[in-house]
Amino acid sequence: MRILTLTLLTVWSAAASAGTDTSVDAETGLATWQTETSNIQVRLTQISPDQVRGFYQARGFSVQAAERYTSECVFMTVVRNIGDAPIQHRLADWRYFSAGQPPRSIRSKAAWERLWKQQGVPEAARIAFTWAQFPATQTFAPGDWNQGMTTYSVPRGGLLDLRFVWRAGAKTHSGKLEQLRCANEHS
Question: In Å, how far are 2, 41, 98, 99 from 161, measured between CA atoms?
Answer without folding.
Answer: 22, 16, 7, 9
